[in-house]
Write a structure and sequence with these properties.
Elements (H helix, E strand, L loop, with lengths): L2 E2 L11 E2 L3 H17 L6 H21 L2 H11 L8 H4 L3 H13 L4 H23 L1 H14 L1
Antiparallel strand pairs: 1-2
Helix pairs in contact: 1-2, 1-6
Amino acid sequence: MARSTKPSGNHPVNPTPVTPRPLRAGVAVLIGAGVGALATPLSTGFRVVLMLVFLAAGLLWLFSHPYRRDVRAAVEARGDRYTTRVKQVVPLFPIWLALMLVPAFEFGNWAIAVIAWAVAGVYAWQVVPRIDGTRELEDLAAVDARNA
């Protein structure tokens, strides 16, 4: 697993878990595909099933990956409770908004579907560390390093 190994001052290395790149890329592709599926010219029922399968697979993969044990251990080592916070859910709002708006426009075009997939995938790549909590752990480690 990838870890941050920068020493902070005279203190030992604080191993902060980071999201593995293959996982981050795969989840971004799946979430993007979920949004893009709604812009395809397929029947509505099939589009919804595809969207649900892609989103469920992406989120299940993200939250069932073995690196989550390290994230949990890092959170509990700080004396915090391992729980979902509002700041982890808020980055999902633009994806939710896209999931609500794309079907309303009835694009029915493969080119638009690929564009929606790419845009949602790039956005998902950016927010996956915020969703899984590793970005918050990095920020807290940086604050601790400055205060030490």
